[in-house]
Amino acid sequence: MFVPAASCRTSTRVGCVFAMRVSISKRLIWLAVPTAVACLGLASGRDASAQRADAGRAINTVRPPEPARAGQTVNPPPSNSVTSAASPTSSRRCPAGMRLVEGEYCPTVEQRCLRWLDPETQMRCAEFAPTRCLSTRRRHVAVCMDEYEYPNRRGVFPQVMVSWYGARRACEARNARLCDMSEWTFACEGEAMNPYPYGTSRDRAVCPMDRQTLRPDRSRLGNPATSADEASRLYEAVPSGTFDRCVSPFGIHDMTGNVDEWVHNESGQPFQSALKGGWWGPIRGRCRPATVAHNESFIYYQIGFRCCSTPR
Predict the structure, then answer these.
(1) What residues does 132 pair with on adjacent strands?
(2) Which domain holds residue 201?
(3) Largest pairwise CA distance in the chain
(4) Alpha helices, H only, the chain
(5) Among 39, 153, 185, 240, which residue has the least CB neighbours within 10 Å?
């Protein structure tokens, strides 16, 4: 089933292509469609190349699930634990596998780049001046956020090829939701408003970005007979938590780089959907920028998500 390219606005960085209900395979075989996510599972504990090979073979032999009916929820991955965790500085509590993000968020900031890696396009900044808050008042934020990208398990490859609608349903099936764009930003930058979760200077050794080695064949991505194989070929994300220094002030991992993350755009303009954080390619990879050009049905080989919930 196709979603035509005309249904999303053109991005200057990621072209619109046919978005297909197809599967992509990694350490766990996650078959992702806009309305359903099913885990078929491969044994862990093996090297990544062997798991990718097994997953690639399985993609041709496993029958994908039927698309969910309207209103039907998806099956979430089993939770890491049934216990709750509290922040040592707050009485608020979050479900296991989630971190408490709480503090004062500045809605409008000034971030001045001191040195560009690419002066012509000015996408990747090597070093920023200290950030200034331009808002007269900060806003209090308190939210529970997945520690890792979905399926929120350390050492597991994050899921991609899922639409905003499919990501929302997967979160709702866990009694969670997609993170608001401002919540995601604050969780990444902290009260210091750092451009990167680890500070003011870009470092590809800290987070998995600037590492794309393969270019997409859009004709193969647009062909239902070859789309799954092409998406699997292009996948260069790493298992969650591989870059142990790629962590925000609140203990959230891989917020910049690895895979793009769907969030809820509070403004609703031009869509409810937005993407944060960037992926493994040569992208902005910062806390503040967002891509808002793609609608809620858009799917691509580097797009994943994580979930949020309200603290108890």
Answers:
(1) 110
(2) 2-74+96-309
(3) 58
(4) 48-58, 164-172, 181-189, 218-221, 227-234
(5) 39
CATH at 70: 3.90.1580
Give the three-class secondary structure for 40: coil
Q: What total of structural domains would you count in the chain?
A: 1
* pLDDT number for residue 228: 87
Q: What is the pLDDT of residues 163-197, one digit of tens each?
A: 999 999 999 999 999 999 999 999 999 999 999 99
Q: Is residue 89 part of a domain?
A: no
**Phi and psi at residue 99, to the nearest 5°:** -115, 145
Token pair 């090597």 in the structure block, residue = 126
Residue 185 lies in a domain: yes
- H or E, element range at 234: helix 227-234
Write the DSSP assignment of 137-172 as a string of letters: S-EEEEEEEESSSTTT-TTSPPP-S--HHHHHHHHH
What tens digit of pLDDT does each residue of 203-227 get? 999 999 999 999 999 999 889 899 8
Residue 244 included in any domain: yes
Contact call for residues 116 and 126 (beta carbons, < 8 A): yes
